[in-house]
Amino acid sequence: MRLGEAQAPHPGRIYLMATASFPLTLALWYRGLHMGTVVDMHVHTIVGSMDSDISPKRLGEQAQAVGLTGIALTEHLHQWPADEVEHFRQEYRLFVFNAREWSTDMGHVVTLGLPRDVRGIHRARDLRAACDDYGAYFVICHPFRYFPGPSSLLFGHRRDQQSMPIEELAEHPVFSLADAIEVLNGGCIERENTLALDVARRLGKPQTAGSDAHMPLEVGRYATVFEKDLESEEDMLGELRAGRFRPGRRGMLAGQYEVLAETEAVAEK
Ligand SMILES: [Zn+2]
Ligand SMILES: [Zn+2]
User: In angstroms, what is the span from residue 43 Cα to ligand 2's centroid?
Assistant: First the structure.
């Protein structure tokens, strides 16, 4: 038994604690009336990503152990076959969105809701157009990974990265293409996530969170907390469009996730 497990009255359920910057009323509202769905919005497995070490079994077990109630599969190469997703849903009783992560000319993008046969897109603008055609959702992921530096996917070509003010960073065209910005990514360092959060707040863009897990124990470090109990991909797309979700991170107790408050910093406690 892990530390804290005994204190959680219902292990596996969601407990959002009130902190100084997280209003008590909102905490109770989440906790008492709407349990919602806690979705790790960025996960890679061996089914569709060469660089992942996570089998479906380990994903299901780890998700349950940390208290997630949903997963968005964001494979690099192939989406999961529909029957495999269904089997996984039933076996682990988790909400699952079969999504995808794309490498584009403007960084990495997770799309939710594009048909399986849409392939071979390399330009972010074309991906945006496809999302518009199909009513899919576009999340720009880890926009400041490796920033500042030559490996930064969005700003690597700029020699003056270090001195670019936040207003100028926020003007990168990918942000106007995006429906939401991933502000907590488990593969990023704190400074990189902070910049993403600053840009999202400046632009008033919705914010998502995901572990970007490639190893089992990374699953669930960050997750997006939806107000509603999600039942289908359509359901989640509706909630995404309505903006009824917040970025969150694992709390101290088993099954507990804390929502990042409006003005709270990314810094770990
Ligand atoms: Zn990525
Ligand atoms: Zn990824």
Answer: 7
